[in-house]
């Protein structure tokens, strides 16, 4: 991986954007974190996502999906955990779009013939689209607002090591960065690729709903004066740290999601914002307590792990508050059950 990066940087006059760096270390065929065969998910891997905790998240989400009788298209299905649960709860056709050949192979081994896999985005979509912890894994551009100008933070090579190096920002990146009011000096990220993904998908959605579930904020919180070092986060063997140059290709790199930008991209393509809420509020609205109530509470062996799972999904100190659910769609009558109480669309 280091040789690959060194070559790429040399061929580009000694500098690549952080987005390009992130694309290579996460997705380069055969080498990237998501494209090579390491464990990644679950207790043996680097991080745990909501569907990896157990089936509670999927069974609760299924209650929302019941009211939307569309085929399901899941983006970036990881180990296939969410699909595995949803397939037991619904009978609609289930399709996955997974760019990583290694993960696709694992999903195929786990899920079998009721699921189909797509190579690329279909021309038009009538359905429910789900992206859980996918947008945070999309490459971001890194920016620095300095007292004397706005810089793009990229990656160079010096003394055999990867280092940050800055160039004046230009083009769309500069235009976008100039609209964000931050105190200087300030560093953060801009998700141009996530926005383009939403624009493209929204343009192809004839009828249905897109659910984006991830950690992130509305713009005014994302670029909060106190978040002056941005949101980049790396995950390596259940340790979260801030150095994207440690273990290139061997660790996950993520950035939080700017939900205002996604909502704008969707609205710009003619979609309606159907709801925006914290994960805890969304799951409560969908009836997570009823799902818990179906469990046998007399059997502690059965109930204790489920209660622990609920605690992780709902607690503000865990995933409940930082994780959000955004729903955008076309031709669907609001309100959706998941946003019946505590909808925060007004904060986007
Ligand atoms: C952090 S994992 C989440 C996996 C799973 N959704 C879960 O919740 O456990 C990120 C996933 O997004 C996929 N991914 C990244 N970029 C993508 C894109 N542009 N389209 C579809 N999937 C993508 C990765 O290959 C990986 O499967």
Instruction: Outline the biggest β-sheet.
Output: 8 strands, mixed
Overall pLDDT metric: 95
Percent range for helical residues? 25-40%
Alpha-beta content class: alpha/beta
Your description of this structure?
The protein has 348 residues and is of the alpha/beta class. It is built from 13 helices and 16 strands. It has helices at residues 2-11, 18-27, 50-53, 56-65, 81-89, 101-111, 171-178, 192-204, 219-222, 259-268, 279-286, 288-293, 300-314, and strands at 16-17, 72-75, 94-97, 115-118, 125-132, 141-146, 149-158, 161-168, 186-190, 205-217, 233-236, 239-241, 252-254, 257-258, 272-278, 323-330. The strands form three sheets. Strands 2, 3, 4, 5, 10, 14, 15 and 16 form an eight-stranded mixed sheet that branches. Strands 1, 6, 7, 8 and 9 form a five-stranded antiparallel sheet that branches. Strands 12-11-13 form a three-stranded antiparallel sheet, with no helix packed on it. Strand 2, helix 5 and strand 3 (94-97) form a beta-alpha-beta unit. Helix 4 (56-65) packs across helix 5 (81-89) and helix 8 (192-204) runs parallel beside helix 10 (259-268). It is globular. The mean pLDDT is 95. It binds S-adenosylmethionine (SAM). S-adenosylmethionine (SAM) binds next to helix 3 and helix 5.
């Amino acid at each position: 991986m280091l040789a690959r990066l060194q070559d790429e940087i040399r061929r580009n006059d000694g500098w690549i954007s952080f987005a390009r760096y992130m694309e290579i270390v996460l997705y380069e065929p055969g080498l990237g974190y998501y494209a090579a065969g390491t464990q990644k998910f679950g207790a043996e891997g680097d991080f745990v996502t909501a569907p990896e905790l157990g089936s509670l998240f999927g069974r609760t989400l299924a209650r929302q999906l019941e009211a939307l009788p569309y085929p399901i298209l899941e983006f970036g299905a990881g180990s296939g955990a969410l699909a595995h649960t949803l397939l037991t709860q619904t009978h609609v056709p289930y399709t996955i779009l997974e760019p990583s050949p290694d993960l696709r192979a694992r999903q195929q081994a786990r899920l079998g013939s009721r699921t189909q896999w797509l190579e690329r985005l279909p021309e038009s979509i009538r359905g429910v689209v789900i992206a859980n912890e996918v947008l945070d894994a999309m490459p971001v551009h890194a920016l620095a607002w300095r007292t004397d100008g706005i810089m793009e933070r990229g990656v160079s090579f010096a003394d055999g090591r990867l280092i940050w190096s800055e160039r004046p920002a230009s083009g769309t990146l500069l235009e976008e960065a100039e609209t964000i009011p931050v105190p200087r000096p300030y560093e953060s990220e801009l998700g141009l690729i996530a926005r383009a993904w939403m624009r493209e998908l929204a343009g192809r959605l004839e009828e249905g709903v897109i659910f984006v579930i991830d950690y992130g904020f509305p713009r005014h919180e994302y670029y909060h004066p106190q978040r002056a070092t941005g949101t980049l986060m790396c995950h390596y063997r259940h340790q979260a740290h801030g150095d994207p140059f440690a273990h290139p290709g061997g660790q996950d790199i993520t950035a939080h999601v700017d939900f205002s930008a996604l909502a704008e991209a969707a609205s710009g393509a003619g979609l309606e914002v159907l709801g925006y809420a914290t994960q805890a509020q969304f799951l409560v609205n969908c009836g997570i307590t009823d799902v818990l109530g179906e469990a046998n509470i007399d059997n502690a062996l059965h109930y204790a792990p489920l209660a622990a799972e609920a605690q992780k999904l709902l607690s503000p100190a865990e995933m409940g508050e930082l994780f959000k659910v955004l729903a955008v769609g076309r031709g669907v009558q609001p309100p959706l059950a998941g946003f019946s109480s505590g909808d925060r669309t007004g904060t986007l």
